[in-house]
TrEMBL record:
Organism: Rotaria socialis
Keyword Signal: yes
Listed name of the protein: Uncharacterized protein
Protein keywords: Signal
Keyword Signal among record annotations: yes
């Protein structure tokens, strides 16, 4: 139990920050918060909250 909690505390944040690859409009992108996207955001392709969308770079 303690080992599991330690593992989650140490590695949990890195999993939360891991970005998921996505493809939209025949271009490769990354699932990130829309507020962090400097390109085009495409909804419906990424897991998580509504503000996490596929960001296609300019």
């Amino acid at each position: 139990m303690i080992l599991t909690l330690t593992y989650l505390l140490v590695f949990g944040p890195s999993f939360a920050l891991a970005q998921t690859a996505c493809t939209a409009k025949n271009a490769k992108g990354t699932c990130i918060a829309t507020s962090s996207c400097s390109g085009t955001s495409v909804a419906g392709l990424c897991p998580g909250a509504a503000n996490i969308q596929c960001c296609i770079p300019k």
